[in-house]
Amino acid sequence: MQPSRGQERSITGNRQASWAFADAFVAEDDALIRARARAREAGVRPVSPGTGATLRLLAAATDAKAVVEIGTGSGVSGIHLLHGMRADGVLTTVDTEPDRQQLARIAYREAGFATNRARCISGRALDVLPRLADGGYDLVFCDGDRLEYPDYLGESLRLLRPGGLVCFEGAFAQGRAMDAAHQETEVLRLRELMRTVRDNAALAPVLLPTDDGLLCAVRRG
């Protein structure tokens, strides 16, 4: 028996309320609030609080010591990752915009992290990633150019140790990735990425409904 239109509205409303509650479940501190304010001023879209909390949890669950971040932004995601990582862990964050990385350095300092906890590299990810060590990383977080996501996957699998984790922000493309009417190149690349991750026997994948979708996969040993 199909739900009535009124029931459907109730289900949708309850689901949206649940998502909103889950996204705000972990409160953010003053350093993160200030980093978000700087992101707005710079026209940068940071990860949501729920996505940030998820990244923090995943970094902690993997006991991450070495993490790569593609897309530094204003430092919001980096703060969450650093909070989840080991106390001696180092975040390597890559971005094409040095001005954004300067904002991130401010954010990391305000959050109480020593300068040697984050290594900021300015440049295009596909130029920088090949220079990083094979199997030397516990987690790779991708929040860069969506058109390059399938290429990031290949580099990430090389960079990750067995049991390491790769995450892609924005897999839903604000709902367009699930709508066949949308055939933009970015959407097609995201669908290609999701199929590749899901069908790769070397990966254990999950698509988390945090904010705009967080696609994650563990590299099997």
Question: How would you summarize the topology of this molecule?
Answer:
Layout: H1 5-23, H2 30-42, H3 49-61, E1 66-70, H4 76-84, E2 90-95, H5 98-110, E3 118-122, H6 125-128, E4 137-142, H7 149-159, E5 160-169, H8 185-199, E6 203-208, E7 214-219
Parallel strand pairs: 1-2, 1-4, 2-3, 4-5
Antiparallel strand pairs: 5-7, 6-7
Could you walk me through the main structural features you see in this protein, from its secondary elements to its overall organization?
- This protein is of the alpha/beta class and 221 residues long.
- The chain has eight helices and seven strands, in the order αααβαβαβαβαβαββ.
- It has helices at residues 5-23, 30-42, 49-61, 76-84, 98-110, 125-128, 149-159, 185-199, and strands spanning 66-70, 90-95, 118-122, 137-142, 160-169, 203-208, 214-219.
- A seven-stranded mixed β-sheet has the order 3-2-1-4-5-7-6, with helices on both faces.
- Helix 3 runs parallel beside helix 4 (76-84).
- The chain is globular and about 45 Å long.
- The N and C termini lie far apart (45 Å).
- The mean pLDDT is 92.
